Amino acid sequence: MSILEVNGLSHTFADKQLYQDASFRLNKEDHMGIIGQNGAGKSTLIKIITGQQLPDEGQIKWQNGCKIGYLDQYAQGAHEMTVFEFLKTAFAELYRISQEQANCYERYAETMDDKLMEKAGRYQEILEANDFYEIQTHIEQVMAGLGIDAIGKDHKVSECSGGQRSKIILAKLLLEKPDVLLLDEPTNYLDTEHIEWLINYLNGFSGCFMVVSHDFDFLERITNTIIDVAFGKITKYTGSFKSAIKQKEVKKEVQLKAYEKQRQQIEKDEATFGKIRLEHGQQWQNQDKKGSTNWTGLIRLVMRFRHTLIFHMSN
Ligand SMILES: Nc1ncnc2c1ncn2[C@@H]1O[C@H](COP(=O)(O)OP(=O)(O)OP(=O)(O)O)[C@@H](O)[C@H]1O
Ligand SMILES: [Mg+2]
């Protein structure tokens, strides 16, 4: 079952064609790495699938009701909240339910209406099922994992550096537990210890993800599938980073061999044609002068080139 289907994607910036009629799928079990040279179009691809950039052509189809969490390469946005308040917004819906429950109790004190207590009980079940009472611990764990505790939970997000903000936004995204995580170069602002924590987190992540990275060791440890953005194409390989690179090399070798074989065949055909022209040139010229067709020469020519025609038609 595909979470995302990209079909016939084409996009050009100025005179740079990033993709031409490219297609791929993101499946439920995919832990996908996105690789490609600088400027190949990896970040643009993330922007296109999140709807921030309209492609020239192509269909982007997400599975209905799918919750997407996205961290862009430069993690924009200044927030007036403290770090902790900001991270709590990952659970905004649960806090809303908790507030509804408090309202129920308040109104019950005034009205003694049992229906309000029943409603409060149902809210309680939702809160417990979603670990509402563990939120604080959960936030603290993620803060420690990504090194945000060193910034301080009462520090204002707007006063944090770009790198610190990226970590905080990543933390919020992970706390939200979306169905799909889209991370553009998440290790840029992390040191080794925190990259290690993120690797463990992503390996235990039950949803699927797409991660852009130039850090090959990181990719090797988190991926089970790779897409390679290169020369206008998007190629999907199954397996981790190293396995994808191996498959890419094999594919390139096969293509080179096929190209070499075709080149040799063309050279051979041209040599044969040259020889036939030498053999029959005078005969054809005589026939031309007489104004009639040299059928024998033509038939022999077609017979000798039969294999060449078949070869070129089958390619
Ligand atoms: N809004 C835009 N307008 C014009 N050109 C753009 C725009 N966004 C990106 N580009 C160009 O498109 C190309 C692809 O950019 P993109 O950011 O997708 O590359 P990338 O693969 O993410 O590169 P990197 O690995 O350096 O992050 C680049 O040449 C970039 O300059
Ligand atoms: Mg990029």
Word description of this protein:
About 50% of the residues lie in helices and about 20% in strands. The longest helix is centred in the last third of the chain and has 50 residues, at about 240-290. Residues about 310-315 have low confidence and may be disordered. The protein contains ten helices and nine strands. The strands form two sheets. It has a six-stranded mixed beta sheet with strand order 5-6-7-3-8-9, sandwiched between helices. It starts with a strand and ends with a helix. It has three domains: about 1-65 and about 180-240, Rossmann fold (3-Layer(aba) Sandwich); about 75-165; about 250-315. It has about 325 residues and is of the alpha/beta class. The chain binds adenosine-5'-triphosphate (ATP) and magnesium ion (MG). Adenosine-5'-triphosphate binds near residues 18, 36, 40, 42 and 43.
